[in-house]
Design brief:
Elements: H1 6-11, E1 19-21, E2 24-26, E3 33-37, E4 44-49, H2 53-68, H3 77-93, H4 95-106, H5 120-131, E5 141-142, E6 150-158, E7 161-165, H6 171-185, E8 188-192, H7 199-210, E9 218-220, H8 225-234, E10 240-244, H9 247-257, E11 263-267, E12 273-276, H10 282-294, E13 307-311, H11 315-328, H12 347-362, E14 366-369, E15 387-390, H13 397-400, E16 407-413, H14 416-424, E17 431-435, H15 439-448, E18 453-456, E19 474-475, H16 480-485, E20 488-496
Parallel strand pairs: 7-8, 7-10, 8-9, 10-11, 12-13, 12-17, 13-16, 15-16, 17-18
Antiparallel strand pairs: 1-2, 3-4, 5-6, 6-20, 11-19, 14-15
Helix pairs in contact: 2-8, 3-5, 3-7, 4-7, 5-6, 10-11
The structure holds nicotinamide-adenine-dinucleotide (NAD).
Length: 502
């Protein structure tokens, strides 16, 4: 059995879950609670309140009042920037604690915090990056269309009350990607963490509050989609919903937004391709692709390149290196420095992934290795072994559906046209990589790919670059100018110098 996770919970000093509403931490009105079972052991780690419609209403009204009457949207840009930088400093100061809480939440190993995209340094950099935007949210000055003595200009103003709804796989990073631009723009917020990753988000919010935000600017409601998330997305006083999660819930958010025409940003799933040409460093491409699908989060990564489109001449080498990487993946207690990957988040996801693996075999893909769940010491957790299929056809379920587990599908191709056709034959469009030593080919492929981010011979998250999806991978971007502008409204101002408009 994996050593108990519980002592680590005690080290964090967390009291059982609380809601933050209008600057005060308190219980839920109806006293229902959610018990979090750790994915590596199944043991009950701790519980937190399930916020019902009454709690959500109080939180939204607090955010509304803080926006309509409070100082935050009216605070000078320089002051807002300083506060965001203070948050970044607090995140760095409490980084180890935040990563420990994240490991309690979703079992992502502490060692994975050494990877930039999963580090507390990245989370802090997101706040620093947005601190730099506060004094650059500029409008435009336009010449009068038909001439005359007046000026036409645009202003960017905060959109209002933001509901930030986040998933469980990278709770710290994904929460920061919403809160930093919202705060930088002058919005007020109600955050709803995932019921599978609440503790790290509560601590991050507590640090944000500690940085000195006025009461009501940031509020937290904990609980699952039903009732907590549902009450939030339907609340008429919410101006914008910023959501990261599944397509299914993304659709519900679009439907719910229709009531009051809420602004919506959606960061959804992916079925991203890696295009590996025979002239590439094939071993490195396999190392990186298999690594992203198995190490750290066990493939529970939206941008993971889970379809490896490999030139027929390179397939054998790709499979050989992938097998070697899979052999290096180690599972267990996330606090153990020897552990490099995680279990699946819950038994439901475990069943789903095992079901898709079975379907892959039924549909005629060749299982090269893996496909089994953890046994012996790992049996109490939701572990699945690194799994590789080859001879996959792009119409099979394992090539079409987001598996969200450690499963890589190798699809052989013959030439560029075929590779692009397969790569783009998906409902998603989040990310892609191109592996080749031919720069012209790399650019041809990059231009032809329908994806929000393309990595050439590598992939890394960048806090200042736009990240998001084409097609059903989402609406909008996080990071950079596009992201922060999505937390603003544009107001046109007409200023006459004479009486011409009277
Ligand atoms: P999910 O959609 O089940 O849940 C996401 C959040 O929505 C959670 O907080 C959940 O409680 C809440 N929710 C559920 N039902 C709701 C409802 N009816 N109303 C309002 N809120 C509701 O997703 P998940 O399982 O937590 O996360 C995995 C998914 O997230 C995958 O599809 C993955 O690709 C995607 N993801 C995308 C990105 C990205 O940046 N594009 C990043 C990480 C994860």
């Amino acid at each position: 059995m994996v050593a108990s996770i519980k002592p680590h919970r005690d080290e964090t000093g967390l009291t059982d879950g609380l809601l933050l509403i209008d600057g005060t931490w308190g219980p839920s009105a109806d006293e229902r609670s959610w018990t979090h079972n750790h994915p590596a052991t199944g043991e009950d780690v701790a519980s937190f309140p399930i916020a019902g419609p009454h709690d959500v209403d109080r939180a939204v009204r607090a955010a509304r009042a803080a926006f309509d009457e409070g100082p935050w949207p009216r605070t000078r840009a320089g002051e807002r920037g300083k506060l965001l930088r203070r948050i970044a400093d607090l995140v760095r100061e409490h980084g180890d604690e935040l990563l420990a809480l994240q490991a309690l939440d979703n079992s992502v190993p502490l060692t994975f915090g050494g990877v930039y995209g999963m580090s507390y340094g990245f989370v802090a950099d997101v706040f620093d990056h947005h601190a730099g935007w506060v004094d650059k949210l500029a409008g435009e000055t336009l010449p009068p269309f038909q001439g005359g003595d007046h000026m036409v200009m645009t202003l960017r103003e905060p959109v209002g009350v933001v509901a930030a709804i986040v998933p469980w796989n990278a709770p710290l990073l994904l929460t920061a990607q919403k809160l930093a631009p919202a705060l930088a723009a002058g919005c007020t917020i109600v955050v709803k963490p995932s019921e599978y990753a609440t503790f790290s988000v509560l601590r991050l919010v507590a640090l944000i509050e500690e940085a000195g935000l006025p009461a009501g600017v940031i509020n937290v409601v904990t609980g699952p989609g039903d009732p907590t998330g549902d009450a939030l997305i339907h609340h008429p006083m919410v101006d914008k919903v910023s959501f990261t999660g599944s397509r299914a819930v993304g659709r519900k958010i679009i439907e719910a937004s229709a009531g009051t025409f809420k602004r919506v940003s959606l960061e959804l799933g992916g079925k991203s391709p890696a295009l590996v040409f025979a002239d590439a460093d094939v071993a490195t491409s396999a190392m990186m692709t298999m690594g992203t699908v198995t190490l750290g989060l066990s493939g529970q990564v939206c941008l993971a390149q889970t379809r490896a489109l490999v030139h027929r001449d390179a397939v054998d080498e790709f499979l050989g290196t992938s097998e070697m990487i899979a052999g290096m993946v180690s599972y267990g207690n996330p606090f153990d420095p020897a552990v490099s990957s995680s279990p699946l988040i819950n038994p439901r996801q475990l069943d789903r992934v095992l079901g898709l693996i079975g379907k892959g075999q039924e549909e005629g893909a060749r299982l090269v290795f893996g496909g089994t769940r953890g046994e012996g010491d790992l049996a109490a957790g939701n572990f699945v072994a690194p799994t590789l299929f080859t001879d996959v056809n792009n119409d099979m379920a394992i090539a079409r559906e987001e598996v969200f587990g450690p499963v890589l599908s190798v699809i052989p191709f013959t030439d560029e046209d075929e590779a692009i056709k397969i790569a783009n034959a998906t409902e998603y469009g989040l990310a892609a990589t191109v592996w080749t030593s031919d720069l012209k080919r790399a650019m041809r492929m990059t231009k032809a790919l329908r994806a929000g981010t393309v990595g050439i011979n590598g992939y890394q998250l960048e806090p200042h670059a736009a990240f998001g999806g084409y097609r059903q991978s989402g609406i909008g971007r996080e990071g950079g100018r596009t992201a922060i502008e999505a937390y603003t409204e544009v107001k046109t101002v007409l200023l006459p110098f004479t009486d011409e408009m009277m």
